[in-house]
Amino acid sequence: MAPRVTRRAALTIAMAAPWASRPARAQAWPSRPVTLVLPFSAGGGTDLLARALAQHLGETLGQQVIVDNRSGAGGNIGAAVVARAAPDGYTILFGTPGPLANNKLIYRNLAFDPEQAFAPVVLIAKSPLVVAAKAALPVRNVQELTAQAKAHPGKLTVGVPGNGTLGHITALLLERELGISLTSVPYRGTADVVKDLLGGQIDLAMDFLPSYVPLAREGKIRALAVTTSQRSVDLPEVETVQEAGFQGFEASAWYALAVPTGTPSEIIGRLNAASNAFLASPRGQDALARLSMQAVGGSPAELRTFISSELRKWGPVVREADIAM
């Protein structure tokens, strides 16, 4: 995996090299600090990845890159800040599936259309979601969870990192597939979900995997399943939902950079090259490994194609489940 990603990132860097020779707007940018808006709270794996990338971008671009946590509304509050920002390269979105794609399928009065409001920069990484349980809950896998939920319909609570987030949608889909009823509890981000799961205030969590790996290894919580088609290398003993008997069930978290539409292509090119260099570097690979994420990289066009494919995949699912806010 790593060599392939490294070659891909290197190729993208080489393709972006011509931007460095242009004396135009990209050469004057950045002349002041850049803000990287993260539309979720501090402390989770997404926040840690954003900060590692921000440090690299700051060193590469020669200006400080400041992470600004703007949580709430499934990522919409922070994303709206970027959508309204001047397209000058000084405000960047560190986005996830919700604000960059799925929220347009869910929110009736979304203040922006992500496909129109943002120009893609690069797909940074992917990771599974995890179905996690508090240590005191007497279930060890999906089958036992199903039995417990059917014995106590609607009594088990599942924390998700916001209304309409990928965690929320996936939890609803899991309910439908398992034929169970859970009570979803939306939070303002992963850090709050983790805190209440550890404290026993909620029974389950459906969330991005990275923040839960060390807790599962230490026995502080129990990972019941991952949502990808293959097991996670970080928790190889944890089965997939498909292995539990629910074929075709798959959902992946992903992390990407985007800027306001109209941002000069020279600036997008420099951000893309710097991000790909981070993914190819030992520092970037170490950061992703510690966060249980898989590097992706590539071009802005590849990210646009990927987002379109995500919308095609989730659109029918959201409509069938009648998920709307």
Automatic annotation (TrEMBL):
Claim: Glycoprotein is one of the keywords in the record: no
InterPro entries on file: BUG, Bug_dom1
Endpoints of the signal sequence: 1-26
A Pfam family that this protein carries is: TctC
Which Gene3D superfamilies does UniProt cross-reference here? Bordetella uptake gene, domain 1 (3.40.190.150), Periplasmic binding protein-like II (3.40.190.10)
Keywords on record: Receptor, Signal
Write out the similarity annotation. Belongs to the UPF0065 (bug) family.
Q: Please name the PANTHER family in this protein's record.
A: BLR1237 PROTEIN, TRICARBOXYLATE-BINDING PROTEIN
Q: What is this protein called?
A: Tripartite-type tricarboxylate transporter, receptor component TctC
**What is the native source organism of this protein?**
Muricoccus roseus
